[in-house]
Amino acid sequence: MLPTKDTRYSVKKPDELSDDEIKIILDNWDVVEWNEMEPGEFRTKFKKSEFHLLTDPLSNILSIARINFNFKVKIDEFEHQIAELAGFVTVEVLQGYGKVLLINLVGNLKNREIEAIGFCKNSAYYESCSLKLFYDTVKFLKEMRDGKWFTPTEDDDIFSLTLSDSSVLLFEKLSHTNPAYLIFE
Question: Most buried of the four, 27, 36, 112, 140, by CB within 10 Å?
Fold first, then answer.
């Protein structure tokens, strides 16, 4: 059930976020090493991102999502510019705000023809949002760090927010013999 309460959806670049909004985002992300991050550092760190916000009529943040554009995927020797959903949290849980934000976010990305994926450990929530899931495929992703290849996340599944049909086919055929490589700029 989606909330009937009046909500507002907005998209902001890091330099458009107020210091208070940044503090709320960091508090809700709950990443210990970022707890003391200053707004200027935040804006620099996430300069290749945009923030999708769902707020109430008083501009209180109800749900947050970050779209990371500093992300490419190399599959079959070709690089594909595919954005990543990250930092998706709801301030007030079990109220339907996350789904409302996802609906708006997906519509926004589709209108702008931006392909995007996300990663998850528990796919039930994303199934309930009718998103296409690629089950148990994260293990086929590789990322280079310190000269070694490793699987970049503890998540299990990849989900499509806005992949094109041809990109869906690429993700469906991921395997140990046909992995994807994450490239960060």
Answer: 140
